[in-house]
């Protein structure tokens, strides 16, 4: 069925208001819908936030054709998929903070539903036999889901081959994050945890290190199965290749989006409740003049050693993340951009 | 690239670090774990104790102690001092003999192993041929007679341990002149005892286990007398004049034999079974001591009637009509008598009986009527009842010190006033720099106050909390009360009593305010007692309150133990710390954290369910806060403290006693053979590897979540006067940290002193911080404007600390098991952090602020964090910048109970349990070091041609160079003076505060 109504082009208002208006006009106040419009190229594009709503209104010539679909039976493939649309997806990915929570289940193929669960990083600096995997832990909804054990591995040393103790992945929990990425497997040897070598450390020590880093866990492994290794300058095959796609550039805003939700992957942001008010994240203090040097040293040192990245000067700041404070953004974005470099080389 | 810019490579700072920090294990306090041998030198007046782990410890006058460790870590079987020498020989259970000597080095004596030796028989002979059973150091000091299982007695030269084969006393030679009917090869099996004639060094008495005793003439190499005993021999003892000797036997009898030149094969003079006529246990050792009045002291071990008292560990003393069987709670290892050592004296005149039991040392005064026990100045049995917690207080004001001592002396009236009889050597260590108290809480509900200032850990006072409660055990029901005419005349001695009447009485947390004399203790059944020091006995009722920590929660059922029943009405308390307030948590879960603020008169306590604040001035509960996560059913039901039957608790006590058989001693030990060690390590690693492959142990990797169990467990409580709400006004506050990484801050309103009783204390929650990594919060600290930790309550009032800087902004330091974080106040924003676990895989177990002084300049000192990790490492972390300064390995990571028991002092020392009965003391500071330093003087120094000096002990390593020592002494002397001066000044104030407080 069709409805026609007018909007003031100069003052389109917020997307929420518009969404409410649509529901009101169609008398479907409690039905979740997907809103789309056809742009000047004839592609069907989604409207789900202020930015693409404003964009849509501005492109109305003079009529803006809106398509509304019930969410359950939405046909996602209808949305544009060519190169032109992908550029705009960058804009479309800035989400309303509670967008995930509203949805009963994760819907595949909507860009806003993507978030990285894992990535292969630092491919350019690691030997081909090693793989550095980053697991993203969001809140508590999905367990990391793996076990480690003691074992022994054979190393090449100046004295020939030598058997040395090592730490291995012993079990993957079905449905856990580790298993679902396909990047870790039973009997993979763990070499580093967040940039720190595990050799000489006990199983308990490595366990504690992994749990301490569980919100942003980066494990360097030597896969037991060496056939799926990343081969430089060529496309990877198999499961690992698929997984790396999850860290396409489009994921960057998602990280920032998740920061807004307080489900950040690093543990920087403790929560404070003042006078029984609303919980808030604890901001970082501006360094005082006397301690600035040592402070920044420590902070940077941790950032770099823990993640194994070098902070980059090239900031891949996304303009859509304006509401996020700079303190979060700088390290995140810096980290992110490098990570992408790694991935891009893979691809 | 920044990662290469590691901080801490500033050469000035590096130098300063060397002046500030130094790690030393200095002394072991308490009673040696699993003692196995005892020796005494009447000449040196030193006692030696050997242990099953191969340690030997020498003790003389208080403060005089030496320690050595056999590399083999084998059980020490026997210890014999070489007569009139600073030397001793030990026999280990691997049949090796070791010669140790005390040598002066750098102005102090040191115990060193000089030589080792294993007796070797002719090739092909069975090992028993050379298995040493008896050792006799001859008074000539030149030879050692070694009795063996084969009946041969070998003679070895000292100190070279060269076997003089031509002087070996073989069974064949002994049997030559024995009458035919006793001439049996078997009668010379196993030499049980060797004793030198007291007057004639050319004669030795040889006792064989089957009962044959032979007096052997060393000059002519033949037996002069034969004594045909029929009972299995246990031991021999010469009477002083050499005219008689005594043998004691397996059947509980002892026999007197005359020695005269006319009868070469005498009959026994007297054969007695002291606890007959029914079968008795063996008498394993006997002394016959002569006195002026003619009545001898007969002192023997064992001999109890087998059926009814066979399980007793006793030593009997018979003197004329007086007879007492001292009854020990643990096995008797050995004993000796201290008597007149002057060879010219006519009588023995015994003065003291020294008994080494498995769990304690007991000394009986034989001179005073009633034979009272002597209070030992060292070797205290820390584990009389198992230690459940400890608390250290540095720099006790003199007045409080004296009051505690006076309270303690009233408890010790039943002890003998005899000066400590083992008084060899001279303590030359400087006086301890300050008066330190170590408080230990025990399973039986007692708190013991130890003088931890110096080398001797000495019990000052014992406090029992049991009186407040009604327990199953009736205090009048004493199992050992026997009537006057009971036989045998058993008398229980010693303090070791591992049986707890009620495990709920156990002490879990202690807090003592040294300025006010207020003491708070908390226990296993959620009981919190606040006490104050009273110099007189008093009878009063204890105010009783209940804190329901589950106020807002419903539908839960506590399945743990019940709370303790309290005694109604007034209770009589002896002089000392007397409770006046009792708060019982509901549910009665174990108290996991405790804080006392003596100035505000508030006590805070926390359990696995929440925490509460009690005003002990108005005797009113201020508030409670439940920290329990609604889904945390486990914590609610209290599996940590399920109802324990008495039987179970007994079993656990036993287990605890046995436990640290595994916890082998320290890692030190001799320099050793490096390659050997490596080889052994390699082998161990290999074995370990194989083991791993056989049984892989898995660890689950999972992020902690809010739903984990015991997140509400309150781990730490802290009072601070700081800026909680706004930066213009500071106020009293209470901080609490939980196992789930939550920090609660409450703003307190404490009425001014003049209206303190009229207006209630109010509290309001101001902040709640959730650490995202959710690791347990183990420490909370507020730093003032100068980044100095806030002083303790009353510290400023007594001019002992600068008042905190309230101008600059305060900072909050939260220490979790995984991270150190500094936040700004009053607006909480994160400033700094150190992620320990993420970087190193270790977790914080204990953390304290310690003050480190420089050994180079008297006026420099700084505050740092002393941290013990779960790997047993100690790390020093700077304040306020959280930089790791230095790391020392301290405790083996497998030694969980050692790590759990560790307590730091405020001046960079610490203690941890190396066994249930021993504290190891260590020091992280260059300036505050308490270690034994003593001299044992020898009338004549013998020239020993030692082949080499093996520095098998740690002594060489831990002593500083002689040059430094003088300096240390001077400095400490000054410090003590300074401390005293300080006290004079504050004494009156403290007193007035105390009086004002009542």
From TrEMBL, chain A:
Pfam families: PB1, PDZ
CC terms in the record's Gene Ontology section: apical plasma membrane; bicellular tight junction; cell cortex; nucleus
Localization in the cell: Cell junction, Tight junction; Cell membrane; Cytoplasm
Domain of life: Eukaryota
Organismal lineage: Eukaryota, Metazoa, Chordata, Craniata, Vertebrata
Similarity comment: family membership: Belongs to the PAR6 family.
UniProt entry keywords in alphabetical sequence: Cell cycle, Cell division, Cell junction, Cell membrane, Cytoplasm, Membrane, Tight junction
Species, as recorded: Orthonyx spaldingii (Chowchilla)
Main location: other
Ranges annotated as biased composition (Low complexity): 234-257
Record-linked InterPro entries: PAR6_homolog, PB1-like, PB1_dom, PB1_Par6, PDZ, PDZ_sf
Keyword Amino-acid biosynthesis carried by entry: no
GO biological process: cell division; centrosome cycle; establishment or maintenance of cell polarity; regulation of cellular localization
Protein name: PAR6B protein
Domain PDZ: 132-225
Domain PB1: 1-71
Automatic annotation (TrEMBL), chain B:
Mapped WD repeat ranges: 69-103, 433-451
Compartmental location: Cytoplasm
PANTHER family for the chain: LETHAL 2 GIANT LARVAE PROTEIN, LLGL SCRIBBLE CELL POLARITY COMPLEX COMPONENT 2
Region (Disordered), start-end ranges: 658-679, 945-972
Assembly and binders: Interacts with GPSM2/LGN, PRKCI/aPKC and PARD6B/Par-6. The complex is enhanced during mitosis. Interacts with DCAF1.
One Gene Ontology term, aspect cellular component: cortical actin cytoskeleton
Protein's name in the database: LLGL scribble cell polarity complex component 2
Coarse class of the protein's main subcellular location: cytoplasm
Gene coding for it: Llgl2
